[in-house]
Amino acid sequence: MSSLSQLKELFRRADAVCFDVDSTVIKEEGIDELAKFCGVGDAVAEMTRKAMGGSLTFKAALTERLALIRPSREQVQALITEHPPRPTEGIKNLIHRLHQRNVQVFLISGGFRSIVEHVATELDIPFTNVYANRLKFYFNGEYAGFDEAQLTAESGGKGKVIGFLKEKYRFQNVVMIGDGATDMEACPPAVSFI
């Protein structure tokens, strides 16, 4: 456990801070909220419990859960409108302070870009600093899968995104903030994990 002074020094040295989104920047887990909204919350929660055993890759678990949810474009937009993600206490202030110090802030999520972009807008984070999974839809708005080429669709994807960011921007001190194993796996290449 770090002291407050150590934590402050960590943020002072950071040239970039990457945040997980679900249950970190926002209070909810996006896929669980989407599943509930689409009427399959219990089934997806059970599937998630089974996947936690580690028998499935992240991509396989995401594929299975989305195959059950099958959200339409309309349902995703309705979820965002009717049940917008709620920011965790203090997150707006923290990100504002990082922006004041010209620290780059990124949102890196195994969740869905359409939801994460809504969060980014609320926090004044440009969409170019959002890395998340893209849902795909047919012309009629029906679910067509997700973009499996996104780094965030893979196991270890958050670390790959941070590696890409370090190479692209020449960051030296990247801090990753999150609540799960996939977040902790991103350190290294992140220098620190909170």
Automatic annotation (TrEMBL):
One GO BP annotation of this record: L-serine biosynthetic process
Cofactor or coenzyme needed: Mg(2+)
Catalytic activity as recorded in UniProt: O-phospho-D-serine + H2O = D-serine + phosphate; O-phospho-L-serine + H2O = L-serine + phosphate
This protein's pathway: Amino-acid biosynthesis; L-serine biosynthesis; L-serine from 3-phospho-D-glycerate: step 3/3
SUPFAM superfamilies per the UniProt record, alphabetical: HAD-like (SSF56784)
KW Signal (keyword) present: no
Pfam families attached to this UniProt entry: Hydrolase
Catalytic site positions: 20 (nucleophile), 22 (proton donor)
CDD domains: HAD_PSP_eu
Domain of life: Eukaryota
GO MF assignments: L-phosphoserine phosphatase activity; magnesium ion binding
A GO cellular-component term linked to this record: cytoplasm
EC category name: hydrolase
Keyword Metal-binding: yes
Function: Catalyzes the last irreversible step in the biosynthesis of L-serine from carbohydrates, the dephosphorylation of O-phospho-L-serine to L-serine. L-serine can then be used in protein synthesis, to produce other amino acids, in nucleotide metabolism or in glutathione synthesis, or can be racemized to D-serine, a neuromodulator. May also act on O-phospho-D-serine.
Family: Belongs to the HAD-like hydrolase superfamily. SerB family.
Protein name: Phosphoserine phosphatase
Native species: Eleutherodactylus coqui
Lineage of producing organism: Eukaryota, Metazoa, Chordata, Craniata, Vertebrata
